Every structure is written in structure tokens, then in C-alpha cells.
User: What shape does this take?
Amino acid sequence: MSSSILRTAARVLMPLLVLFAVFLLVRGHNDPGGGFVAGLVIAVAFVLLMFADGVEAARRSLPVSPWHLLGSGLLVALTAGLMPVFVGRPFLTALWAHLGPERWDVLVGTPLLFDIGVCFVVVGVVLTMTFSLVED
Assistant: This one.
């Protein structure tokens, strides 16, 4: 049984950690961060919840199973790598597109898609290992 302070802290910190992970994910191509670090931060948020409320509560708060995250992350990363092949470029070459009006100067590319896949894989692997270790 965990303390009420830990349970309250976990409930307050979890959305902040996920928001920070999204920030790390989005800025990761040009600055420090990226899918791997964002995935670790999200996994830490769920591990903190697991310590506070137990494995079942952490599993219930995760929208999909860690195995599905792992598999979909691999699929997303592979898709990001194969997209350039379909336009005649080498595997994992960055493709960029403007998002919104030209004056916004927002570029979205396959590196972000690849980082999202890596993030899903890292969350899936870390939570699969952690949940398995705690349940045994």
C-alpha cells in the first residue's frame, strides 16, 4: 500500500510528464530530445502511477496494451522509412511538407513520424518489462 502523498503526486505529475514528453518529441529533430527520450518520460509517468496505485491501475490508465504500442511503433517507424522509397529516394531520407499557411513556416516531415514510432516502441518495451517484473 502506498501513501496518499505518493498517489496524489502521481496523479498531478502524470499529465505534466506526458506534456513534457510531447514537447521533447516535437523539438527532438533540431534540438536535444526526440522519440527515445520522450518514450522514456512517458514510461516513467506510468511507472510512477504503478508505484502509487499498482500494476492494474497503471494498465487500466494506458489506452492500449504495451505490446500493441510496441508493434504499432515499429509499423509507424517503418512507414516513415519507406515513404521516401515510394517517391524514388533512399530509405529513411527525410521528406518535408508545409503545415498551414506559408507564413507560419511550419515544416512537418518523416523524421517526426519516425520519432513517434520510436517513442511508441520505447514506451511499449519499458512498460512490458516493468509490468512483467512487478507481476511475477
Observations:
- The chain has five helices and two strands.
- Residues 4-135 form one domain.
- The two ends are 17 Å apart (CA to CA).
- The beta strands are 96-99, 106-109.
